[in-house]
Amino acid sequence: MDLNGNGITVSNEIWDQMKPHVPHENGKPVHPIKADALKPVVDSYRDQGKPFKMGMVFPVSTHNYELRYWLAAGGIHPGYYAPEKGDTSGTLKAEALLSVTPPPQMPATMEAGTIYGYCVGEPWNQQAVFKGIGVPVITDYEIWKDNPEKVFGVSKQWADENPNTHIRVVKAMIRAARWLDENNNANRPEAVKILSRSNYVGADYEVIANSMTGTFEYEKGDKREVPDFNVFFRYNATYPYYSDAIWYLTQMRRWGQISEQKPDSWYMDIARRVYRPDIYKVAAQELIAEGKIPASEFPDFATEDGFREPQTHFIDGITYDGRSPNAYLERFAIGLKGTEKI
After folding, report:
1. DSSP labels for 147-190?
2. Domain locations in the chain?
3. Angle at which helices 188-195 and 163-185 cross, to 10°
4. 77 or 210, higher pLDDT
5. Which DSSP category does 41 fall into?
6. In what order do the strands lie in the sheet with 134-139?
7. Least packed by Cβ within 10 Å: which of 13, 82, 124, 290?
């Protein structure tokens, strides 16, 4: 459904401790800020016998894997899951303890001191800036440029029973995504008005607009241009790439949610069963035939194989090729790989 849109925020106290380890230029922090700057803080907490606690949205959320990726890239172990041993805490061997916090409660939970930082979607990073309680130190756009975000999924039973409705819903979502991006995001202010209503997100217009209209505010007053922080249609954002699914499966294996080694063919099989470009193609071709969207704005369905080219824009410089998931896992210093088990 979109690319990017998340961020990692820390409390003012943690930011004050990180700041001496962050490079500055003209008095402002140099972005992207790596977790290397957080590691001395985490080490200090450990030396004092205090757990370093952070929040994320759900154990199988994009936020969990992005936060873990950022932490591990800075040498901070985010912990393992061991479902085969009945341990689903995700904190085995952890140097930073990650726990689930509902998105709207993130700022208040951090303000109360229950967690020291969190990874969440907007507008809950910008909310911390507006409330003056925290600093978003990095966006997921900087962790993995143009990373896949939300998905629309239905059960196979529902899809089989409602094939026409399924196609029409996908068509409507494609059109909505295009509307959000067209004319250089010209419709975003109208979208923000809708989202700010109490029966939707309910956050203030200014808070939502801070990241939906081409900017992102880090430390209070440090607002920067990030035109692609939210992408809904361009760059084939709505297309269900198998390689996107496989990346998340590699992270599930890396942190123990998949408890044992699987062959590359297993990753491919799972991706093909769940991600359905064939359904997307039918919806897109109907929109093209109806004159709603030109064919040039979709992938070339005659040649598209569902795999993005190897992606290089990760904060740790490691290239991801969805065709070789096990070789990819071998490249990480922190995390399970090969035949390793908890």
Report:
1. -B-------HHHHHH-HHHHHHHHHHHHHHHHHHHHHHHTTHHH
2. 3-143
3. 120
4. 77
5. H
6. 97-100, 53-56, 117-121, 6-11, 134-139
7. 290
- Using the predicted structure, report yes or no on whether residue 218 has a pLDDT greater than 90: yes
CB neighbour list of residue 234: distance below 8 Å, 6 or more residues apart = 181
| Alpha carbon distances (Å) from 217 to 153, 184, 213, 220 | 32, 20, 12, 7
- What is the C-alpha to C-alpha distance for residues 172 and 205, in angstroms, rounded to an integer? 25
CA dihedral over 13, 15, 20, 21, signed as positive or negative: positive
Tell me the one-letter amino acid at 154: V
To the nearest 10 degrees (0 to 180), the angle between helices 188-195 and 205-212 is 140
| 3-state SS class at 97 | strand
Specify the amino acid at residue 111: E
CATH superfamily for domain 3-143: Periplasmic binding protein-like II (3.40.190.10)
Task: For the chain, give the mean pLDDT.
Answer: 97
Residue 67 class from Cβ within 10 Å (0-12 exposed, 13-18 middle, 19+ buried)? Answer: buried
